[in-house]
Amino acid sequence: MQLLAMDLQMLSRELSLYLDHQVRVGFLGSGVGLSLVLGFGVAYACYYLSSIAKKPQLVTGGESFSRFLQDHCPVVTETYYPTVWCWESRGQTLLRPFITAKPRVLYRNELIKTSDGGQISLDWFDNESSVSFSDASTRPTVLLLPGLTGTSKESYILHMIQLSEELGYRCVVFNNRGVAGESLLTPRTYCCANTEDLETVIHHVHSLHPSAPFLAAGVSMGGMLLLNYLGKTGSKTPLLAAATFSVGWNTFACAESLEKPLNWLLFNYYLTTCLQSSVNNDPDRNGEAKSKRRSGPHFLRGPHWLSGGDLAEAVDLHGPSVQAVRAGRGGARARALTHVALRGRVRTAAAARDRVPRGPLAPTGAAGH
């Protein structure tokens, strides 16, 4: 707060000195235009520093773990400065794909079979040049889970791998069924409430490197899937730690928000079209799949939107939602650090702490998805 006060005082002093001297620079014929621009800039800077740039709220179920995070993960206590010229969350979400960098990552692809005849694509970054962990058998492995329509080619996944490479870690990206250019061999796709495919992947990866520390990170739907898995498996998971980013705090409220006209136009239509294409563009492998596909959920055939009813049906069919993790069921062995971008920040730390007893929550006030 002292630093913020000093910044505001300095900006105010500079503006006062300028207005007192009324420097004439010929902008729009006089110094009035420049005065207006400078005044607007100072006002915007004051608003940004006082209302937009904030530290995340760190909510944990125990003081000891809170101190551990502050000591070893200091970013949870640092002020978050959104992009100055684009701090609104929807604007960041829309612009990110067009202006972000994509580090070059060379993958090794692996296809694994599921018990129902489906297949899952795993993209490996083995990091054979790791200096910190030259022994591949003990090199830490990070499992990365992209969002709803994401793949291993997403910029946020590539940047995670780049950072992991610097630490000497090995990474593997879990591509959901029917995405990343892979064929959908069964009528079944994927859902954040069903953890069977993730369980298959975790068991497979752990069996390949049983002596290596095993960690996981999920973004958006990938984070929801990871949290559901942790809530279901509890202490039986081989994961030592997990982190999730931009997960839905209330999935049904998220669904209702996506149905609003502006969000439907900006996000819902595109997301639903991508989900449809993963099914409709894939050739039918047999008559049974074709028949089941025609009788499947209505959003795969016609309307270009996802509704709250679709989400409710999916949760009812495939299992519990992230509420299981909030309730602390299962005593998960892995500590999960959850980042949530909330337009309205958590009302009280005490209320949030009661709902997240087994892992910390670090919500920010303004962030893209």
From TrEMBL:
Chain's gene name: ABHD3
All residue ranges annotated as the AB hydrolase-1 domain in the record: 140-237
Pfam families xrefs: Abhydrolase_1
Spans traversing the lipid bilayer: 25-49
Entry similarity comment: Belongs to the AB hydrolase superfamily. AB hydrolase 4 family.
Region of interest called Disordered, as start-end residue ranges on this chain: 281-302, 348-369
Name of the protein: Abhydrolase domain containing 3, phospholipase
InterPro entries reported in the protein's UniProt record: AB_hydrolase_1, AB_hydrolase_4_sf, AB_hydrolase_fold
Organism annotation: Ornithorhynchus anatinus
Keywords: Membrane, Transmembrane, Transmembrane helix
